[in-house]
Every structure is written in structure tokens, then in C-alpha cells.
Task: inverse folding
């Protein structure tokens, strides 16, 4: 899936624009341990139902709030989670948005050498989403690793939508036909 316009029913829908709209809509009034547990549990349940082996990490910048790993994940997944969280913290955007904005393709997951962002600490890969509180800003991240990056991203979006009472279909990414 690319950031290019995708034609659906005569209308061009842009994946990047949809992700920006997700970030603008999926904002919390408050976020605490109970919120993290509810969203993390919803993400876990969705991953199991869809047959994905993932790790999910939910954190505020000062502490972790939720973590789980499903069978089939590896020791690499927590490292991907950490690096994705660093990207959300640095840029205040979802990592899939960063992939599309930076034009990262398969096999090209590092930031440009002149960015000063070490590949051991930052990665261009979807699955990290900002925890944004209305009137406050980005205070943490919800991160999934283990499935394809658009699936990682949408597992997070669906989990947040469920908590906020938003129809996840209204936030779906365009599908290539």
C-alpha cells in the first residue's frame, strides 16, 4: 500500500490523508492505566481473532502501562516496538504516516544518514500510534509489532476506535482493488 491516491468508486482516497485524519480524530479526553488495559486487551482480542502473532506495548513517556506478546512472536518484536515508540515520541506522528511521508520501501527502514537518527534507535515501520490528549498533546504511544505494517497500524486504530466509540470502518485505510 502506498501513499498515492487509490481509486475507489470514482473517488481518489489517499492513504496518507486517511492516516492524518485518524490522528486528528483519535484523541483522548484522558488516558490512564485502565484505558491502556482496555485498549491493549481489545488489540489482543482482535489479533487473535484475525490470526496475527503480535506484541502490543502501550506507554506514557514516563512509564509502561500495558504489554503483551502472543505465541509466534520473537525476541525481535520488543526491539521493533521500542524503535517505533522512539519515532512517535520524536515526531508526534504515527509510524505508518512517517513511512509514507518519507517514502520508505521494503528493505529501506532506516532514516536518512544525515537525519542523525540511529537505526538501532529509530525505524520506519508502521504500527506505532500517538496517544494524544485533547488540550495537552502527545503523551505516549500504542505500538504493535508482528504483522504487516498496515495491519499493525490498523490493529491499533481499531483498538482506539472501540474505546472512543468510533466506528472502525469509518477509519479504515483504502484498499487496493
Result:
Amino acid at each position: 500500500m502506498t501513499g498515492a491516491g487509490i481509486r475507489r468508486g470514482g473517488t481518489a482516497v489517499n492513504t496518507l490523508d486517511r492516516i492524518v485524519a485518524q490522528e486528528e480524530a483519535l484523541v483522548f479526553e484522558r488516558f490512564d492505566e485502565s484505558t491502556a488495559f482496555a485498549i491493549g486487551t481489545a488489540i489482543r482480542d482482535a489479533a487473535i481473532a484475525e490470526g496475527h502473532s503480535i506484541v502490543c506495548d502501550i506507554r506514557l513517556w514516563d512509564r509502561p502501562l500495558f504489554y503483551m506478546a502472543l505465541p509466534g512472536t520473537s525476541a525481535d518484536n520488543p526491539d521493533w516496538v521500542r524503535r517505533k515508540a522512539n519515532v512517535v515520541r520524536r515526531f508526534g506522528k504515527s509510524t505508518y504516516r512517517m513511512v509514507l511521508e518519507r517514502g520508505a520501501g521494503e528493505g529501506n527502514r532506516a532514516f536518512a544518514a544525515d537525519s542523525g537518527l540511529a537505526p538501532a534507535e529509530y525505524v520506519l515501520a508502521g504500527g506505532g500510534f500517538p496517544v494524544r490528549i485533547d488540550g495537552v498533546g502527545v503523551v505516549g504511544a500504542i505500538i504493535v509489532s508482528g504483522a504487516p505494517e498496515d495491519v499493525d497500524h490498523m490493529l491499533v486504530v481499531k483498538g482506539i476506535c472501540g474505546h472512543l466509540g468510533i466506528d472502525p470502518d469509518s477509519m479504515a485505510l483504502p484498499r487496493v482493488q
About this structure: The mean pLDDT is 90. The longest strand covers residues 137-145. The chain is about 40% helix and 20% strand.
